């Protein structure tokens, strides 16, 4: 299944290339290659997010950073962005010509994430992308001609190497579809599509009609052979869920047949994926719908939403309520439902692991929606049982829901290191926490740079405690800060004024306080 980065580097077109970062990852497999010259992360993310969210687990990217050659910050954003997509690494061209050198900040970030950067020979105008593209793709194609005996183990290993939140039946089907260059479809026993992954992804092939045409013959319900449809070759296998219910797996390849015994190998992989990540995969329930949204199972999500008559496009708000004790989950969820249905016409509330996920839309009244969350945490009898609540407004689509859920889980328990006296957090605060965590892990040089923001008061424990409590715990409120520090609010005002003079930032002004805010979070992370 593809070639390793180490083998790729032995190709003639890589002669003189240097591995700058990610040396520990050279065993990773490459099964596709892409060119990125729109390197502005904001713009390219809009392109990717306009289609079905993917995980590019075996892809390496070619670029010269031409469009961001003058911005080290944008280059770092691009590395971060590619890593989040699951890209294996970056083949960087024309160093010394387009960018003078690879910035230390870029190298440190890539190394911290085990992201591979391969630098092609520097100051060489004769280099051409097509030489690497041809040799790499030729090696991949030659290696993909057969389905070898290790196919099942290799495929499952690739899925198991993904982040936990990306391990799902749908992601497994996507990897298999990319490997086979074929459409992969799961249906129930009534031939209703449960999952479908198209090849190519934007294909308009009517796979539902093809399955209805071929299924009676493939399942031996009708003798003879089906009339060929659109030069398609169809293979079928039945697999079973843990509860014994059957699912039907179909492979549809256009214009050419699949290698012998492909369906047997693929069905083994899908069967294991169903056993590991597909509990009640065919279930129709709100729990299954929320699980499908979180796991990026788009076809399943659409099917369930249709059956349950839930308009997922109306979902604009999400609460994530993390609880200490699952034995109290029913009590907390019932109280939460009672509270939310006073304000929202649409509300789907389900528990996954230790998190109650509430997805809402169509707010009934002109309430300030943050105040609805604040009212709940202030009045609920379940407050001692709740670890944290994340308030996430303006969820434009299910991709936003999924990304926010993953972001919050990536912050994890570190939220309590940065915020010691709160339980309710906004989505914006979670993003800032994520940034602070990443900065705190980038080495001594970056840490020193951020600590320099508050360096004038680092030797004064009282000033540090006052500043951090004021910005993080009291959210800039003098009264609340005074109560937390057991001093009068005027004492807090005096201290904050002196601190602002010393560090050169007016921390009572939002436009000036952000860097100080991030520095305070990093301080708590590194001094807890």
From TrEMBL:
Top-rank taxon, per record: Bacteria
Domain annotation Purine catabolism PurC-like: ranges: 7-140
PucR C-terminal helix-turn-helix domain ranges (all copies): 465-521
Pfam families, sorted: HTH_30 (PF13556), PucR (PF07905)
UniProt name for this protein: Transcriptional regulator
Top-level taxonomy: Bacteria, Bacillati, Bacillota, Bacilli, Bacillales
